[in-house]
Specification:
338 residues; eight-stranded mixed β-sheet; alpha+beta; 12 helices; three-stranded antiparallel β-sheet
Length: 338
């Protein structure tokens, strides 16, 4: 927690230990922080030099039978006083870094604007493609627009899931259009559902022309045919230009035509019992059917039998009070199940 202010893990352990014992010796704090007394003493001297603690003379205890000098005690300086300068330093450093970043970015754009390479950057090789892809996702501050098509090639799905989670935690507006064939297998369907529960918004298309990620509408990445790079994964990174604008428009068109999937609506319960709300597993079936999947395909994707799929659909129809699947889809949209 305090490493961002320049404290090492060991220093933070000693400092937080003093929050419980605002006045203590190096030995007492070493015991509480779980470190050696010599290290505790070194850390306290360093914290004292930085004004975070103050060394005070301990009062001799004439009844302890020890004629030697009492150990030095340290008193915690109020955090509101001691940590404020460190916080101000970090804020100033961050401000300077942001200013330098803006200047370098603008300088690059000004220079690159006169060359074709400033619009399109070619990236070749698994490591380079994966690195740039993760840069785009982790660097997004406002919005991510993604086309999902086929199996991952350069970036493992687990790495993609991690960067997605990071973006959602930062409050990035995350919209995805997935090719219907992308949802191949129960594991993928479950991962997608969890991402939607975390805030990702997903729509499904019958087909998409390409894979793509657009970060903050300032840059995009599109994979290239592997045959064009001798079999190595490759991609282009598109910087601000008419081409980037066209890619954003393409996304918005497919988004407008896509079918919503796993949207957050009425709360679903894991066990239906006598509840009059659908279970999550039932909505999982309904979402695939509304996306155009057959009963057999939905059963395959979810690892179920066709009979189980039919039974879950029948229960949803009973809950809705409808007689057809068409009416069920209308009811699900009206009450916000999907």
């Amino acid at each position: 927690m305090l490493q961002a202010l320049g404290l090492s893990p060991a220093e933070e352990a000693v400092y937080t230990a003093m929050l419980v014992r605002p006045s203590a010796s190096a030995g007492e704090l070493a015991l509480q922080a779980g470190i050696a007394e010599a290290e505790s003493d070194r850390i306290l001297l360093d914290l004292a030099a930085r004004g975070l603690v103050v060394a005070v003379n301990a009062t001799p205890d004439s009844g302890d039978g020890n004629d030697g000098p009492p150990p030095t005690c340290y008193r915690l300086t109020p955090p509101s006083v001691a940590l404020a300068p460190l916080l101000a330093e970090q804020r100033n450093a961050l401000h300077l870094a942001e200013t330098a970043f803006s200047k370098l970015t603008e300088q690059y754009r000004t220079t690159a604007a006169h060359t074709a390479g400033g619009v399109v950057e070619v990236v070749v090789g698994v490591e380079q493609v994966a690195h740039r892809f993760l840069q785009l996702q982790r660097g997004a501050q406002r919005e991510l627009l993604v086309f999902l098509v086929g199996e991952p090639i350069a970036v493992p799905r687990e790495d993609t899931d991690t960067s997605e989670s990071s973006a959602l935690e930062r409050g990035v507006d995350f919209r995805v259009v997935a090719d219907k064939e992308y949802l191949a297998g129960h594991e993928v369907v479950q991962d997608v559902r969890e991402a939607v529960a975390a805030g990702l918004v997903l729509r499904l298309a019958d087909s998409l022309p390409l894979k793509m990620v657009v970060s903050d509408r300032e840059r995009a990445m599109v994979p290239l045919d592997m045959t064009e790079s001798g079999g190595e994964p490759s991609a282009i990174v598109v910087h601000p230009s008419g081409l980037l604008t066209a890619l954003v428009h393409l996304f918005e068109r497919e988004w407008a035509q896509g079918r919503p999937m796993f949207t957050t609506g009425v709360e679903a319960h894991d066990e239906p019992a006598s509840d009059q709300q659908p279970a999550a597993e039932e909505l999982e079936v309904l979402a695939l059917l509304l996306a155009g999947f057959s009963d057999r395909r939905a059963a395959s994707e979810l690892g179920l039998s066709i009979r189980t799929v039919e039974r879950r659909v029948r229960r949803l129809m009973d809950l809705s009070g409808v007689e057809s699947r068409l009416q069920l889809g209308w009811h699900a949209a009206r009450v916000g199940w999907l």
